[in-house]
Design goal:
Helices cover 58% and strands 1% of the residues. It is an all-alpha fold. It has two domains: 259 residues, no CATH class; 41 residues. The protein has a two-stranded antiparallel ribbon with strand order 1-2. Helix 4 packs parallel to helix 9 and helix 16 packs across helix 17. 36% of the residues are buried. Bound molecules: zinc ion (2 copies). The site of one zinc ion has 6 residues, from helix 12. One of its GO terms (biological process) is fatty acid biosynthetic process. InterPro entries: Acyl-CoA_DS, FA_desaturase_dom. One of its GO terms (molecular function) is oxidoreductase activity, acting on paired donors, with oxidation of a pair of donors resulting in the reduction of molecular oxygen to two molecules of water.
Amino acid sequence: MKTDTPALAPDDKINWLASIPFLGIHAMCLFVLSVGAKPVDVLVCLALYVIRMWGVTAGYHRYFSHRAYKTNRVFQFILALVATSSAQKGVLWWAANHRHHHRESDTELDIHSPLHKGFWWSHMGWIMCPKYEQTRFEAIKDFARFPELRFLNRFFLLPPIALAVALYFIGGFSMLVWGFFVSTTLLYHGTFTINSLSHIFGNRRYRTTDTSKNNWLLALITLGEGWHNNHHYYQNTANQGWFWWEVDISYYSLKVLSWMRVVSDLRTPSDQVKYAYKKYTPEMQAELKASTDFWGAVSSRKKAAEDKVREALEAAADHLPTSAPAPQALLKRQ
Ligand SMILES: [Zn+2]
Ligand SMILES: [Zn+2]
């Protein structure tokens, strides 16, 4: 019995044709083999990774999805523009989908739960599925009222294309390959780790109804998003690293911007939230430790499904002819 296979819905299918641009960006990275690695190109690649990752975490995630701080309308547009140049679709699409993820975390309705839909689906399969293509406007009414954001959301391909063209004219084909294709591919997978790996590897400090983890390595790659268990426990804070050792570069930059009065009202967790784990009973702590194991969760799901079948077979045993094999034997044979 294969109960540990991901529970994809029948319409959870990949549209390969529509995914050609997404996969094409990956394929274009192969040109590094012919253009080599000029230091200036590699530097531009890294700089654009950091700038656009910042747009995604400080903008798409903390501002547009969670309203974790305030800013003016001009800077709000700049945030959306920088993040849109990451080629991760439109601002309203991204934030609305993300709000949905928090509402349904690791339930069967979660668009990208590794627990229910498997690693690859949570990492990138869902992006290539036509089912999730449309913006869920009902979930993002607060920002959908700005016409400039609706425009960016609709023409989300413009900023990344403009960036690619600019890189080509500034530094030629090699800068296009490194600065756009390699950088954007790294950015994709850096961001996607939060949907996949952050729900699989790491530690859990807080009790949440999902499998979110805190992971320092993912926090470095994503400028602070790897403190994902903190984040799932209390979503609306501008910082996701809550202790001094939890490095959160996005938050440090927001702090600097707040001194410059570009952003304001950065929300941070109260002590009650931050230290809630200190009140956990030893049983709760033990449960938290045990639940950090993703593979353990998969195998317990498998066992639960097997138990169900066993019970059903045992219940049916009374009605079986005496010549039929015992229920346990039936189970083993599958
Ligand atoms: Zn999550
Ligand atoms: Zn979030």
